[in-house]
User: Fold this.
Amino acid sequence: MIATGAVPTYPDVPGADARGIYGVHTLQSGIELRRVVDEEKPGRAVIIGGGYIGLEMAEAFIMRGMDVSLIERSAQVMGTLDPDMGSLVSDALMKVGVKLYRNESLESFDVSQGQRPDADLG
Assistant:
């Protein structure tokens, strides 16, 4: 994956600094997430945001056989597309097994695993 300088938005919700929550915005953050996935072999991923990077992550996790859910605040993923094209992308995601939650807002993260050691979100 090549990240071109986008900055992830960390929502101001409880648990945003919890272990297992990652923002993918640089090559290094992608490498770190890949290392965690390779070593810990999680069976499930929840992706917040249905933009370009979110869709790339959904595809990568599906290809690894993971259970993938994607939460999107808008009615369709890929808000940069016309609504009819966004609908086609949403349909394609669901067809490959992504559980898609549209018109949903994030309220909190489950913090039962503790805080990441690198949880400086500032």
Notes: The radius of gyration is 14 Å. The chain has three helices and three strands. The chain has a mean pLDDT of 82. Residues 42-102 form a domain with the FAD/NAD(P)-binding domain fold (CATH 3.50.50.60).
